Amino acid sequence: MLTVEGLTKRFDSVVAVDDVDLELREGEIHGLIGPNGAGKTTTVNLITGELSPTSGTIEFDGSDLVGLSPSSIARRGIGRSFQVVQYFPDMTVRKHLHLAVRESTRTVRSVLDRGADYSDEIQEVAETARLEDELDTIAKNLPHGQKRFLDIAMVLAMDSKVILFDEPAAGLNESETNEVREILEDLRGDYTILIVEHDIDLVRAISDRITVLHNGAVLTTDTPDNVVENTQVREVYLGE
Amino acid sequence: MSDTIADIRGFARGTARRPLLALGVLLVLAVPFLFPSQSDLATEALIFGLFAISVDIALGYAGLLTLAPAAFFGLGSYTVAKIVVDYDMSFWLGFPVAIVLALLLAFAVGYIPIKRRIGHVYFVLFTLAFGAIVYDFTFVTTSLTGGSDGLGFFSPPDLFGIDLGAQTPYYYFTLLLVAVVGFGTYVLIKSDYGDVLHATRQNELRMRYLGYDTNRELMIAWLISAGISAFAGAMYVGSVGIASPSDVSFALTGDVIIWIIVGGTGTLLGPFAAAIGLVFTQEILQSVWLEGYRMLLGILFVVFVFVLPDGLMGLIRGDE
To answer: What are the b/e assignments for B252-288, b being 16+ CB within 10 Å?
Structure first.
């Protein structure tokens, strides 16, 4: 579904991502882990068009994504969340999801179908993201955990085929992390998911396969159990 | 102070809302009969109200701090004057020509800072440079623009047998056009497009990753703003009968920014009302102290911003 081959990103003399191969199979949850500075977020930024690769290819459903803008890549069906939650502070949760659901914003069309009703889609996404009781809450008034859920909900509302979650549990307490885990489990099979996360227990519990990055390069890609047993991984990532 | 503001807010949003609105509409409709000597000033005030709305689209909704509103306003007035005075062509032809010229120039000015994403500060600098070029252009190209004398004088033609050169007909003509364009702008801003601009202003990164081409959305807002500004300028020259350098001056740019801040940025109605109110206030201050009226306006502005930082609409809406 999404295939990355030979992906490399250099910042002057620093190689942030070094000849990375990554394959996301349809419907799988794929973990991407590694120590700080391993190149995880840079890889996500390359796939989503925030950065341009120095070399390598990113193929999605048969077409090359390299050189496309983030908005163009998003419209092709690749959504993402962020390490630092990105939202619209003065807007309600409902308005966030309305903007995310809306398939087009052509100005004339925007005026002509002012009464367009997306309430069913919004309700469904809000329930999946545990936000059904907060639809009319102004986003800045949500607690941090629910802001994270809102970030996830917006990506779901876009009806993406592939979702890249960049540390979806960052800053969450144990109970909120468990809720994120439940949400991701609910999505299993409906979406192809790449999850970048420091919480190794969370990644191990929900991932079908895990890729470990170290110094920008792929150390291994394997099942969670095999990755945890991998000696090299234990040395560089778990510090054993 | 906060109690007083809360009382005013409660009054304006409560039972007094509809009567106040009705009173305002009646007053606007009856100006030529109640205050015939003020019809010309009221016409100008309406036009400046529409001008403020147009700039509010760029500044208040899209977050594009433009320093060239007067350049587009003046482009409208000079285009109509040029077509009528120098080419002896139809007054009405000037309107579409002015709008097309404004769109072309706005696209040229906005393309690099908006489409090429080189940052908001460059947008400010580009519009500042464009405003300065247009202003100087009116002085150095005397054969084209009439220099400091401007281009005039002329009167608008008859329309369906009605002499628009007379005060009262032109007032109602202006009122009709301002109402139509103002309502169109309101509908646009209340559509999803208004939300798109609002959201883009708050978090452009998130919008891009929701699939929105934010550069395109901002460019559309910028073009709409410039087009309506030119339209307002075209109406203005029909009222005063001459296009002059004051139509493209930075003083006018300063005025429209003040109207927007006083009315409340990103509210449309606030800048519209503030423009009308301040045009009349300026007239009163001029009668009090002709040489120093701008200083008095400046002091009023500082006091106003201190007391009501969110403008008139902020006072009425509160935490809404």
So the answer is: bbbbbbbbbbbbbbbbbbbbbbbbbbbbebbeebeee
pLDDT of residue A105: 47
- Cross-chain residue pair A74–B209, CB shorter than 8 Å: yes
Contact B214 A88 (CB under 8 A): no
Of A185-194, B8-17, B36-45, B204-213, the one with minimum mean pLDDT is B8-17
The verdict on B319 touching A (C-beta cutoff 8 Å) is no
Q: Which of A70, A99, A158 has its CB closest to that of B196?
A: A99
The Cα–Cα gap between B319 and B316 comes to 9
pLDDT at A27: 92
| Minimum distance, in Å, between the CA of residue B320 and any CA atom of chain A | 10
The pLDDT value given to residue A111: 62
Evaluate the CA torsion angle A148, A153, A155, A161 in order and state its sign. positive
Q: Which residues of chain A does B208 touch, with a Cβ-Cβ cutoff of 8 Å?
A: 69-71, 74
Indicate left, alpha or beta for B277 from its phi (over 0: left) and psi (-120 to 50: alpha): alpha
Whole-angstrom distance, CA of residue A184 vs CA of residue A164: 12
Q: What is the reported pLDDT for B189?
A: 92
Q: HSE (CB half, 13 Å, CA atoms) of B55?
A: 35
d(CA A177, CA A145): 9
Beta-carbon contacts below 8 Å between A and B: 82
Can you state the percent helix, strand and coil of chain A, rounding each to 5? 35, 25, 35
- Give Rg (Cα) of chain B: 20
State the pLDDT at residue A107.
Answer: 55
pLDDT tens figures, A154-182: 999 987 899 999 999 888 888 999 999 99
Rounded CA-CA distance B116/B107 in Å is 12
Torsion angle defined by CA atoms of residues B143, B145, B147 and B152, in that order, rounded to the nearest 10 degrees? 110
Q: Band of the pLDDT at B21, cuts 50, 70, 90?
A: confident
The answer to whether A86 contacts B206, with C-beta atoms less than 8 Å apart, is: yes
CA of B97 vs chain A CAs: smallest distance (Å):
22
Distance CA B194, CA B116 (A): 23
Beta strand A192-196 with A162-166 is parallel
Flag if B220 and A107 touch (Cβ within 8 Å): yes
> Nearest residue of B to residue A158 by CA position?
B210
List pLDDT tens digits, range A129-157.
Answer: 999 999 999 999 999 999 999 999 999 99
- Identify which of A107, A116, A154 has the shortest CB distance to residue B210: A154
Q: How far is A239 from chain B (nearest CA, A)?
A: 35
Higher pLDDT, A197 or B130: B130
Q: What is the pTM of this model?
A: 0.90
Å from B206 to nearest chain A CA?
6
